[in-house]
Design brief:
The protein is about 35% helix and about 40% strand. With about 140 residues, it is α+β, with helices and mostly antiparallel strands.
């Protein structure tokens, strides 16, 4: 059973808020047991984490590298169990102090009221295809 559009929007907005609030427990509570997280292929050292434990470890280690994280949604669209978010991602390197400020596009899939997939994209065309036709990066 897939979540309805309202459920999808609620889950995605809550996930972004939990990540921005550095609330790991709230973010983990929103994840489906079969969660998949795929960073944009153009990101140096892009990570694919599949399964709850791998994604949990990915999220737990995030603070090791970054002292600051902010996801600013610039556009959000919802259809059925999917969401498309164009966002500004701002990070500060924990050791280097280097600031990263870049736009990425994300497609989220919600299943059974939980976040089941997150795919990052560099190009809107690729993200839109995944959003409209299913599938990921």
């Amino acid at each position: 059973m897939s979540a309805v559009a309202g459920g999808t929007e609620e889950v995605v907005r809550a996930y972004v808020a939990a990540c921005n609030g550095d609330d790991l427990e709230a973010a983990l509570a929103l994840l489906h047991p079969e969660i998949e997280l795929h960073e944009a292929e153009t990101l140096p050292g892009a990570v694919d984490a599949v399964g709850f434990e791998e994604v949990r470890r990915y999220l737990e280690r995030f603070d090791t590298h970054w002292s600051s994280f902010n996801w600013e949604p610039l556009e959000l669209e919802f259809t059925g169990d999917r969401a498309l978010m164009r966002a500004r991602l701002q990070l500060v390197g924990r050791k280097s102090g280097i600031e990263v400020d870049r736009e990425w596009i994300y497609v989220f899939v919600v299943r059974d009221g939980k976040l089941a997939r997150q795919d990052g994209f560099d190009q809107m065309d690729d993200a839109r295809a995944a959003f409209e036709h299913g599938g990921g990066g």
